[in-house]
Amino acid sequence: MENLSLQDPPLSGSLAVTNNVPPPGPSQLPPQMFTTAAQLLDLTDKKLLLVLRDGRKLIGVLRSWDQFANLMLQDTVERIYTKDVYADIPRGIYIVRGENVLLLGEIDLDKDDYIPEPYRKVSPTEVHQLHVKEMQERKESDKFRQSKLQELGFEVEHNGEVLL
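Given the sequence above, the corresponding structure tokens read:
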């Protein structure tokens, strides 16, 4: 994408008059400068990795989007990582609300099939069992940490749990 500014002369084929007379009305951004969800135009029909706010990782081909950056992915898979294993769960066509996207990046198709050294692909059920176990361990360690902080006088967050 070109680096353009408001002071650049208009492109050929533009409707502006070039007789050193400024165009009437407020200055307009050149059509090449997108400052909103229109930046997704370059990523349309490309394979993307999305990381959502809840931690899920989705891989799919961006087919459509709107002004709110809501995305429609085709041939989507959800990739779950736990320790040194991962699994891909096919999800098909997936619609993602724009405010839930934490990170978005294009996947290099030349390196798409490369799996980093410590990881190995296993069945989704095996990864799910390991993931549940890991979440339980994390919950217990968070509970221990929160009790220690509370002993020191810090207010702890309760992550939506019901306090009795």
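The first strand starts at residue 47 and ends at 52. Try to locate this feature in the token string yourself.
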